[in-house]
Amino acid sequence: MSARTVVFLRHGRTEYNAAMRLQGQVDIPLDAVGHWQAEQGARSLAAAHSPTLVVASDLTRAAETAGYYGKATGLPVSLDERLRERGFGEWEGMTGEELSERWPDEYAAWRRGEEPARAGAESRADVAARMVAAVTEHADALDEKDTLVVVSHGAAITLAITAMLGLDPTGWRGISGLNNVHWSQLQRSGANAYPSWRLVAHNVGADFSLDEWSSGPDWIFQPTSA
């Protein structure tokens, strides 16, 4: 038996997201906007899906986001380090401009879709393999009517979805990334069908304009009175 539905949820905004820095596996918490996104997104996702199990990356930004969803649904959250973001080695914490200056050839190759091997980055294939292994293990512990919610990271989720759709995660780049606290839904295909999963929704979020969602409401930045 296995869960019929898997929902991937990306974590909320961090200071690195706001500064356009490559996060990788640097363990950064949510910023104020990220906490607001996580709370609002949790309510919307809870209204759209009735989860059976919630598992999350053990990196703080994902665990914090999952905590809001767990509170909204009344479910505990399990952490799994296999759901971490792709590691980017020496590149972690840097902006695109900094990468272009220090590693011009490698950065240009990465932007073309190649692997930044010399930077010590984790390969796409390895990320996809650990993500799919984790999702499969958790899904297979559930019933065919159940829903698994996985709280993870942008690159990791994209690679997992690509692999679960039977596509090559090392070269196929046809799935766009997720905005912060947006989700994608996969549904199990019929018996003996290939691929085993179908993508039925992608990059879905709470009902806010993307500009407001990315920057947060004005009240977040208003000073509190003593």
From TrEMBL:
List the Gene3D superfamilies.
Phosphoglycerate mutase-like
Q: Which InterPro entries does this one have? A: His_Pase_superF_clade-1, His_PPase_superfam, PGM_Phosphatase
The record ties this protein, via Pfam families, to: His_Phos_1
This protein's name: Histidine phosphatase family protein
Q: Which organism is it from?
A: Oerskovia merdavium
Instruction: Print the organism lineage.
Output: Bacteria, Bacillati, Actinomycetota, Actinomycetes, Micrococcales
